[in-house]
Amino acid sequence: MPDTATPNLPSRDFDTTEDFYAQFGFECGYKDGGWMILYRGPKGSRAVLEFFPYPDLDPKSSSFSACLRLDDLPAIMAQVTASNVPQGHIGLPRFHPPQKEASGLTIAYLVDCDGSLIRLIQNN
């Protein structure tokens, strides 16, 4: 198995967080009172998000974020678009559709219900 790193993000409520990310194909691989791990995709090439409890988090002042580098950005964007998450620049949750940025990368932005910013980046 190659070396990997996974983002650790806050969650005010694990069930709410799990339900939110399930809309985009994430499945719970582990959950107890102190930690939750969500997976998306097949083993060996899957995206992983890990969550710790933070019940007093103010989502409007959250500065937590992570990048998910994906082989198929359009597939997850189809799920985001089909979900109840609104497109916009304010409110929680929300998303911004993908666009090619000055870096040459195509990036979409998803802000979850706890205010964490997830950058969805198309692998080149």
TrEMBL record:
Domain of life: Bacteria
Protein name: Bleomycin resistance protein
Species of provenance: Erythrobacter crassostreae
